[in-house]
Write a structure and sequence with these properties.
The chain is of the alpha/beta class and 287 residues long. The chain has a single domain (28-282), classed as Rossmann fold. It has 13 helices and seven strands. The protein has helices at 44-57, 72-76, 88-93, 101-104, 125-128, 138-144, 163-171, 183-187, 189-202, 222-235, 249-255, 260-263, 268-282, and strands spanning 31-35, 62-67, 106-107, 113-116, 152-157, 174-180, 208-215. Strands 3-4-2-5-1-6-7 form a seven-stranded mixed β-sheet, with helices on both faces. The longest helix is centred in the last third of the chain and has 15 residues, at 268-282. It is globular and about 55 Å long. 47% of the residues are buried. InterPro entries: AAA_dom, DNA_Partitioning_ATPase, P-loop_NTPase. This is ParA family protein. Residues 1-25 are annotated as: Disordered. Residues 31-208 form the AAA domain.
């Protein structure tokens, strides 16, 4: 009879962990990350809010830019953009030409986390900016005023590949793409990659793909596993090891206008976003 030990099974990527980040002695300049997917309903805003909150919990100063006319990131942090006179739209197209970026920043109820809100006005920006000089670089100029004050700026993009998204990609250092583990969510990723490559070639040579994040994972279904396997096969080392599982706690925390790290701090969803924050820092995407 053989006495050799059985071979160790490989550790599933989502079970890997990352070290606790060290405190920072000083803050800034920020690394700017565009949270981007032209398909809606893939957990993009949920990830933008909760990754921002998890980074803030680890002592990083974070600015979340709501760049979606739906204003979901603003509402999710307790700011009703529809009641505001000044938002990201005001900075993009006016008419408040005397505004500074700092004038539009809101301090949220989460320590170290600030917000530039949005509302439906932003939907008009693409048409209004069409004849502007360097229209693709307006957001980059806006963020340049404050990026030295933060460790991370996270832009929650709208679900399209229009001028606003191009602005976000032109301003960003990196792109994170949340992808729901559903078949139809896979179809648009190739188109988004083409857009990222075009922006890198023509407008922003520093832009890189930070990674693909599997979201809304339902480990009970074979379909979810198959889609995740296809993502890993297609993107390999560009997949984040952390995955985000489907849970009712995410919509519940949105209704409560709190990040899940505060609404349900011990829930596995909160722990997943803390793990994602540690992974982002371990990979050098945020200091």
């Amino acid at each position: 009879m053989s006495t050799s030990q059985p071979a160790m099974m490989p550790v599933p990527p989502e079970d890997k962990d990352f070290p606790e980040p060290k405190p920072l002695e000083e803050h800034g300049p920020a690394r700017i990350i565009a949270m981007c997917n032209q398909k809606g309903g893939v957990g993009k805003t949920t990830t933008a809010i909760n990754l921002s909150a998890a980074l803030a919990e680890y002592g990083r100063k974070v600015l979340l830019v709501d760049f979606d006319p739906q204003g979901a990131a603003s509402v999710g942090l307790g700011v009703n953009g529809h009641e505001l006179d000044t938002t990201i739209y005001s900075l993009m197209v006016g008419p408040h030409h005397d505004l500074t970026t700092g004038d539009v920043i809101h301090h949220t109820g989460t320590e170290n986390l600030d917000l530039i809100p949005a509302n439906i006005d932003l939907s008009a920006a693409e048409l209004q900016l069409v004849n502007e000089v360097a229209r693709e670089s307006i957001l980059a100029r806006i963020l340049r005023e404050v990026e030295s004050d933060y460790d991370a700026v996270i832009i929650d993009c709208q679900p399209s590949l229009g001028l606003l998204t191009v602005n976000a990609l032109t301003a960003a250092h990196g792109v994170m793409i949340p992808v729901a583990t559903e078949f139809f969510a896979l179809r648009g990723v190739a188109l988004l990659m083409e857009t990222i490559n075009t922006v890198r070639d023509r407008l922003n040579p520093r832009l890189k793909l930070d990674g693909i994040l599997a979201t809304m994972v339902d480990s009970r279904t074979l379909h979810s596993k198959e889609v995740r396997d296809r993502l890993v096969e297609a993107f390999q080392d560009k997949m984040f090891d952390t995955v985000i599982h489907r849970t009712v706690k995410f919509p519940d925390s949105t209704v409560a206008t709190k990040p899940i790290t505060e609404f349900a701090p011990t829930h596995e969803g909160a722990e997943a976003y803390r793990r994602l924050a540690r992974e982002v820092m371990a990979k050098g995407y945020v200091a």
